[in-house]
Specification:
124 residues, 2 strands, 10% strand, 23% helix, alpha+beta
Length: 124
């Protein structure tokens, strides 16, 4: 922010604030806690791209990469499964695992907590 005034400025063109027209297969995975793409802005994509074989999958309490950080009880990650399914057959994607993602745990691990915090408990 300190250097913002030093950056060059350009006039806005017709593309600013617009979405491109696209009706082909599309997969959108979004974590509701994504700091890079806040939910209130990203959710516009769900309504803009809601055609056949266009999937909006929302992961509650996940951050920017729900593909790698959407753990399921069987040790797999929901987002990776959905990615793979979409690449195999974009016309037939099962997104139901999004409702089965395990909750975010804020306890850490004793070893990591000790390394980072000097105590085995993140809450001490």
């Amino acid at each position: 922010a300190k250097r913002q005034d030093e950056w060059p400025r350009y006039p806005h063109d017709q593309c600013v604030g617009a979405f491109p027209g696209y009706s082909g297969p599309l997969l959108m995975l979004h974590g509701t806690f994504d700091p890079a793409t806040p939910h209130k802005y990203a959710v516009e994509l769900a309504t803009r791209y809601a055609g056949p074989h266009q999937y909006w999958v929302q992961f509650s309490q996940m951050a920017h990469d729900p593909g790698r950080w959407s753990p399921l009880s069987d040790g797999t990650h929901c987002g990776l499964t959905i990615y793979s399914d979409f690449l195999d057959d974009p016309q037939n994607v099962d997104t139901s695992c999004a409702s089965e993602v395990l909750p975010v745990l804020f306890d850490g691990s004793p070893a990591l907590n000790t390394a980072l915090l000097g105590t085995s408990s993140a809450w001490d």
